[in-house]
Structure formats: C-alpha cells, structure tokens
C-alpha cells in the first residue's frame, strides 16, 4: 500500500520523503490534487500499522509469559521475539538432539554435498526443515553481520579488508 501511494504521487511529478512503513500513514504529505483520493488509502495504512503493533505486542507477551526460554535467545542482537518464539516452538524439546550441532541439519542450514571419487563439492544449503524459521534465522544473521551488527564485527571487517 505504501508503494502504491508513492507511485501514484510520483506519477503526478512529486516525491514523498523517505520514511518507515510504520510512520508513513502519519507523516506522508500528499499533494492537494491527490489528497482526497489517497486519504482512504492512508487511513488503511494507519489501521494496519496499529494492528501490526498489536500483534507484535501479543507475540512479545506470549513469548515472555509462556516461553521464558525465549528471553535468553533475545539477548543476541537481531533476534527478536518472533524469531525466538519460532525457534523454541519449532525445536519443541531440545533434549531430543544429542548434540547442539544437530539443530543446523534439522533446520536445513548445512551445505549439501556432492561426493564423487576424489571430488568433494559443497553445494547450497539443503533447505530441509521449517522454511519460515530458516528465513527468520537468516534475517537475524544478516542483521548481525551487516552495518547494524556489533562493533566487534565492524572491526573484524576492517581488519580483513586492510
């Protein structure tokens, strides 16, 4: 919806200033010619933003009340209540894994192998297991490794480049 409003405004030769999707419904300054036509769309964006915030709070409360083990997972930067809750609910009983190293293959986060004779190729990850949790974990890893991550990662990147 945000992209639709932006494209309609752009088709009229105007541009909207950058803003997050959460604040777009409040901050968007629509040109007068489009104001009446876009008001219902902006109201829907505001309502959806409120509902999303409500669901986020419900997920956070559920994680804190029913699954206190998620708090330990959330100590890692980039891991929020949704990722922690999905991890705990997908693994169910961690005791069923003999070693913690078995969780990666269970989620499909290990490379597929192509072994033939003396050739031992590593291919893409196997993608077995829960795809949604895998997507959340990869997103968290990207958050940690990219510009939002801790300072020690930035220092490590600097040392590797120089």
Describe the 3D structure.
- The chain is 60% helix and 8% strand.
- The protein is mainly α.
- It has two domains: 66 residues; 95 residues, no CATH class.
- A two-stranded antiparallel ribbon has the order 1-2.
- A hairpin with a 2-residue loop joins β1 and β2.
- α2 runs antiparallel to α3.
- The longest helix has 35 residues.
- It starts with a helix and ends with a helix.
Brief summary:
This protein is mostly helical and 162 residues long. It has helices at 2-11, 21-27, 32-66, 70-73, 81-91, 103-107, 131-145, 151-161; strands at residues 111-116, 119-125.
Features:
mainly alpha; 2 domains; 8 helices; 2 strands; elongated
Number of beta strands: 2
Task: Please tally the helical runs, counting DSSP H or I stretches of 4 or more residues.
Answer: 8
Largest sheet: 2 strands, antiparallel
- In the predicted model, the low-confidence regions spanning at least 5 consecutive residues are 157-162
Q: How much of the sequence is in beta strands? A: 5-15%
Give me the strand/helix succession. Answer: HHHHHHEEHH
Distance between the termini: 44 Å
| Count of distinct structural domains | 2
How would the global form be characterised?
elongated
Given the helix and strand composition, which structural class is it? mainly alpha
How are the strands of the largest sheet arranged?
1-2
User: What is the averaged pLDDT score?
Assistant: 86
Helix content: 55-70%
What integer value in Å does the Rg equal?
22 Å
